[in-house]
Description:
The chain has 400 residues and is mainly α. Helix content is 69%, strand content 2%. The protein has one domain (3-390). A hairpin with a 2-residue loop joins β1 (215-218) and β2. The longest helix is centred in the N-terminal third of the chain and has 33 residues, at 92-124.
Amino acid sequence: MSATSLALSNLRAIVILIVLGFHSILAYLSFLPAVPHRLDAPPYDWQSFPIIDSRRWAGFDLFCAWNDVCLMSLMFFLSGLFVWQSLTRKGSGRYLLDRIVRLGLPMIPAIYLLMPVALYPVYLVTAHEPSLAEYWQQFRALPFWPCGPQWFLWQLLILGIAAAALHKVYRQWGERLAVAAAGTRTDPARFIAILVAASALAYVPLALAFTPWEWYQAGPFAFQWSRPLHYAVYFFAGAALGAHGLERGLLAPDGALVRHWPRALAGALAGLALWMAPTAVIMAGPQPGPLWLQFAADLGFVACCAGGTLFVLAACLRFATRRRRVLDSLSGNAYAMYLVHYPFVVWMQYALLDAALPAIVKAAAVFAVSVAASWAVATALRSIPLGARVTGAGALAKAP
């Protein structure tokens, strides 16, 4: 395995830990309201914060903010890296069938079986005389079917369909995109400028029109109005690098991005500040705030995504190029862990509501149990032939 491939495999393991850590701390953010959200009460804010604990720690807010901005862009970018290789090897039809099996099929039990189990504690915290029958009645009365973290897979499947359709009508699209990645091994400035500009064009108009936080939901399908085109930009940016060659471009182990990782760190911190400063002013006053301030916050979001993604890639290529058995196992089970982890997170947060423990201790316990339980379930699933076929190694970041 090449140094770049090994770093990306280790990054897949790191990403799934970040995802579980992000969900584990959501109950303990300092800005949450004192009263928990009712399952049957609009605007259904429990979708973002299913459990609200009285113990809080403001330090979690910063970690949560960075992940909310950067993490999903990074995941779409990683998912795009292997698109062109898969399309050229399999062809459009087989590639599309593989995406349906690997992404569409697992979503059925993840959404329709696991989500009702995961959300039962949301009902319990506000129910006076709880019963399964009443819970099911309230759940079925919702104007949508909650999909939880699986919204990512919905959008990834749509992008996979788009890539297959594009390949069907224009087989050279990957080679054309690869031109943008040429020379990134020694000078990535042009590629980064294209990424930032395309992201700004895709994100800022929608964020101004719909706000950065508004969601659309229909049945089990959900997305943030401001972000689908932005995620598409990162997905196809990854595809461009993959088409050019992972070892030849931006992700080369001896490339400029790796050598200048301290600059990538400075860029990530600067991007985070550019987004947080105007966003904090907007959140503190009457929303949505002046148009110029919204525009500044939206441009800050674009800069934060680019800086955070590039730094994580640079850091992993610089420091995560050694093979570790634990990381290999996490990487191989990452996709299955993503599918099954949410009920463990929510139920652990609910179980610790009355515990007289600091927020940091509670979050650590939720994280530890969720990682261990979802890891065990993922390992068991991959021991079954169908489970191994559907949730095989690398599906989280190598979904296409």
